[in-house]
Write a structure and sequence with these properties.
This protein has 385 residues and is of the alpha/beta class. It is 27% helix and 23% strand. The protein has helices at 82-87, 109-123, 146-154, 171-183, 205-211, 228-237, 250-262, 285-295, 301-307, 310-316, 345-351; strands at residues 3-7, 11-13, 21-22, 26-30, 33-38, 48-51, 56-59, 61-66, 73-74, 79-80, 91-96, 132-134, 137-138, 159-163, 187-190, 215-216, 241-245, 269-272, 331-335, 356-362, 365-368, 382-383. It has a 6-stranded mixed β-sheet. The chain has a 6-stranded parallel β-sheet with strand order 13-14-15-16-17-18, with helices on both faces. A 5-stranded mixed β-sheet has the order 5-4-1-6-22, with no helix packed on it. Strand 16 (215-216), helix 6 and strand 17 form a beta-alpha-beta unit. Helix 4 (171-183) packs across helix 5 (205-211) and helix 6 packs parallel to helix 7 (250-262). The model has no long low-confidence stretch (mean pLDDT 96).
Length: 385
């Protein structure tokens, strides 16, 4: 049994809204899972030892909104290895919001179903740089039947991509398909805000409430946002997840974050990039969301870690995104960047600074020894034995 001891952790950030900072300075990993979290833990015989040297440890970050296609290539930006670059921004899991950028994407029912199944099966195997990708998000097209949804679910499709990006746009038609998907344990995203690509539509509170998705995708716009009043109506009249993205309206992101903080609904907020998009590929987008919401949205920085990890993991039923025994050991070692006024990673986030990452583990294996994209961290984790 391979094992790892992580010691000298300065801040153990759980990814859980209910208890965001753990009273712990060490953890033990065995066979890719967290086995124990505590203080002063000893190394099992033959264990590898990682010295955090006072840095913070967080769960691997989860990008709740990524427009992957097949493989680590984005046709929207004609860029290779964008997922590997996002991994260096602390993202250990990306979730597809629909493979809508595929050249010649089929827009009939059969083609949409086949694309989702192929993508889901492909991403179940492909791991760019080690990153886990929940891919194969079915785009709702006219003609899809309940049997089609059942076939997709049986084939491993777990997500309905942004409702509104396909030909199904009217709430009455979409709501029936959404109900079929939810009955099979699928998580349903829905486009929120103005049009983003040809074929998408303007979606506000009325359509969201009538359709009943699991997530109001990019409530701060993709890239054009609904009004704050519309956003509040979605928040107040539903219990669905509220997604804030990097490639959206920054003012609305801060306003929505502040409202969620005032109403103590931190557990409903999740973070995505909504990239690749016309805005580009934002490899540090989830870290930037955390800094934005902590500095301008008034949210305690330790809660932004949960918004970037545990909240999304729970929504999608993932056995990761939190630091607790029995969960997958996807971990990020981060700290205040050199030169920041913040004394630790929480102080840096409160200042609006992007943390520095010194090491990333996926399933207990070191996949990044030092981030090539973040600023250098003040305190750097290292393997010592």
């Amino acid at each position: 049994m391979s094992s790892i001891l992580v010691k000298n952790v300065g801040l153990m950030l759980s990814g859980e809204v209910e208890n965001p900072i753990l009273e712990a300075d060490s953890l033990v990993i065995a066979d890719g899972l967290i086995q124990e979290v505590g203080s002063g833990l000893g190394a099992p015989q033959g264990a590898t030892v990682i010295d955090a040297q006072g840095a913070a440890v967080t769960p691997g970050l989860i990008d709740s909104h990524c427009h992957v296609v097949l493989g680590d290539w984005t046709p929207r930006q004609q860029m290779m290895n964008f997922l590997d670059s996002s991994l260096h921004g602390g993202v250990t899991t990306s979730i597809s919001a629909g493979e809508v950028h595929l050249p010649g994407r089929p827009k009939d029912a059969l083609g949409a179903k086949c694309l989702a199944i192929v993508a889901a099966k492909s991403w179940a195997v492909v791991r760019p740089g080690g990153m886990k990708v929940l891919g194969g998000a079915l785009i709702l097209e006219k003609g899809l039947t309940e049997a089609d949804i059942e076939e997709c679910a049986q084939a491993g499709v777990k997500v309905i991509g942004e409702v509104g990006l396909g030909s199904v746009k009217e709430p009455a038609e979409a709501a029936e398909m959404v109900a079929w998907a939810k009955a099979r344990g699928m998580t349903v995203m829905m486009h929120t805000g103005g049009t983003s690509i040809p074929g998408s539509s303007v979606v506000g509170a009325e359509q969201i409430i009538a359709t009943g998705p699991s997530v109001a995708s990019h409530i701060n716009g993709g890239p054009t946002a609904v009004s704050l009043d519309e956003a509040k109506r979605i928040i107040d009249q539903t219990d669905i997840a509220i997604e804030i993205v990097q490639c959206g309206n920054m003012r609305r992101a801060a306003e929505v974050a502040r409202y969620m903080d005032e109403t103590k609904q931190w557990d409903r907020v999740i973070f995505g990039n909504d990239a690749p998009s016309g805005t580009g590929v934002v490899t540090l987008g989830i870290l930037r969301n955390m800094a934005l919401v902590a500095s301008l949205g008034g949210v305690a920085p330790e809660l932004t870690v949960a918004m970037a990890s545990g909240n999304t993991a729970k929504l999608y039923g993932l056995n990761r995104g939190r630091i607790a025994a029995g969960l997958e050991a996807d971990l990020v070692f981060m700290d205040t960047p050199i030169g920041s006024p913040g004394n630790d990673v929480l102080g840096a986030l409160a200042e609006g600074d992007t943390p520095g990452i010194s090491m990333i583990l996926i399933d207990g294996k070191v996949v990044v020894k030092v981030s090539r994209n973040t600023p250098p961290a003040m305190r750097k984790a290292q393997v010592v034995s």
